[in-house]
């Protein structure tokens, strides 16, 4: 928004000042909207063809410098990549249309000051404004007028750009809500999307409820999700969750997963698309004590290769109690996992650690994602290379297994002593 309190003009608006002469202020107004460019009023600027040519060049140059996507239309979204360097997301990582429902940062009572691209009327929510911003490659921030009854502000969505090297100012404003279209990482900080999938007929729900109460484990990540499996392939409802108030009162609605196992869980993670907004995705078993602060120390300066990377946590092979994948690694899985489940490259899931073995082989052997061994990730009784067993006294990122709430909490308290 501009600093004045009046209604904002649509951007970009050029006063057509040529050699000190200023015609009517709206003579070169053009609006970039979903229908394209409209509202051109060139003839009121000048009466000669020469002046029209000058104005056309001047307005075109202005639009390019300002960063307005004047000739861009929504159907071109898939053909354009981001043009600045405020994110390391490569072009193929741009969220697809089905992923655009999940917004980035939202700050209430805040106005973001930067260059306006254009305005959209009749947007009835902050989330709707964010969704509009997500559709345009040049949009770096948005502001929505939440105040009621103010012409030119109420239900108006202001889409905003950011020139290279420019700084966006945040100003308190009780009449607006502002945000960014996608989540980005703070410098020097590895953002984590963590999830768990409780199994039917176990104590997993109780363990996750305890973890949430203590704000530990996946609930200490930047974002978390719980994906629930149905008790059998014939079930039509997630009855195991509905019967447990400890889970139903906090688990996300609609996160019901079929009982075909971990492949369906990963498929749901991919279809939700929430991993796209974080550098790392971490799958954690509910009965594993997980310490995100320690994982961030491991990942803080770890470079992500172009092909993506995932972490092997045991000398004998990947143990599925904790799985750490970079954003590009999971994107590679999202695009190519069918190669691992069908066709000539199909993998056989016949190992004792079925999930870990499948993910390990699918990523490294079929999809050619980089494999990095990091034994400090896990202390697991099923892994011989674990140095401290499950005593929670070592410096590992996760300890497994703890199937009762008592032993789980004891492990958290013991391990928490070593967290700086």
TrEMBL record:
Q: Which domain of life is it from?
A: Eukaryota
Q: Which UniProt keywords apply?
A: Membrane, Transmembrane, Transmembrane helix
Instruction: Name the residues that span the membrane.
Output: 49-72
**Sequence ranges assigned to domain Apple in this UniProt record:** 111-160
- Secretion signal span: none
Tell me what this protein is called: Apple domain-containing protein
S-adenosyl-L-methionine: present as a keyword of the record? no
Protein source organism: Pyrodinium bahamense
């Amino acid at each position: 928004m501009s600093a004045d309190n009046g209604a904002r003009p649509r951007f970009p608006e050029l006063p057509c000042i040529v050699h000190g002469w200023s015609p009517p202020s709206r003579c070169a107004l053009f609006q970039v909207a979903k229908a394209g460019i409209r509202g051109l009023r060139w003839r009121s600027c000048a009466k000669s063809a020469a002046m029209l040519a000058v104005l056309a060049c001047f307005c075109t140059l202005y639009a390019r410098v300002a960063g307005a996507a004047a000739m861009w239309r929504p159907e071109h979204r898939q053909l354009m990549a981001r043009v600045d360097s405020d994110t390391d997301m490569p072009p193929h990582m741009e969220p697809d249309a089905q992923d655009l429902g999940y917004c980035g940062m939202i700050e209430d009572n805040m106005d973001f000051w930067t260059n306006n691209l254009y305005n959209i009327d009749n947007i009835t929510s902050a989330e709707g404004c964010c969704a509009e911003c997500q559709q345009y490659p040049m949009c770096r921030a948005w502001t929505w007028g939440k105040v009621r009854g103010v012409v030119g502000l109420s239900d108006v969505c202001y889409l905003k750009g950011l020139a290279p090297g420019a700084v966006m100012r945040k100003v308190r404003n009780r009449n607006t809500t502002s945000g960014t279209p996608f989540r980005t990482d703070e410098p020097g900080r590895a953002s984590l999307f963590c999830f768990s999938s409780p199994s039917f007929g176990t104590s997993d729900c109780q363990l996750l409820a305890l973890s949430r109460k203590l704000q530990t484990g996946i609930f200490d990540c930047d974002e978390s999700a719980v994906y629930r499996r149905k008790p059998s392939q014939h079930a039509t409802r997630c009855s195991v969750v509905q019967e447990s108030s400890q889970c139903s009162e906090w688990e996300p609605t609609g996160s019901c997963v079929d009982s075909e196992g971990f492949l369906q869980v990963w498929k749901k993670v991919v279809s939700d698309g929430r991993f796209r907004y974080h550098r790392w995705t971490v799958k954690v078993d509910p009965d594993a004590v997980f310490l995100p602060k320690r994982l961030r120390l491991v990942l803080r300066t770890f470079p992500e290769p172009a092909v993506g990377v995932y972490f092997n946590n045991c000398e004998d092979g990947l143990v599925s109690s904790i799985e750490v994948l970079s954003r590009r690694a999971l994107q590679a899985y999202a695009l190519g996992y069918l190669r691992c489940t069908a066709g000539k490259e199909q993998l056989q899931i016949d190992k004792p650690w079925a999930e870990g073995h499948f993910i390990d082989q699918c990523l490294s052997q079929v999809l050619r994602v980089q494999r990095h061994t990091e034994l400090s990730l896990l202390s697991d009784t099923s892994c011989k290379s674990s140095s401290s067993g499950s005593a929670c006294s070592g410096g590992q990122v996760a300890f497994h297994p703890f199937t009762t709430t008592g032993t789980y909490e004891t492990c958290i308290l013991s391990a928490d002593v070593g967290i700086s």
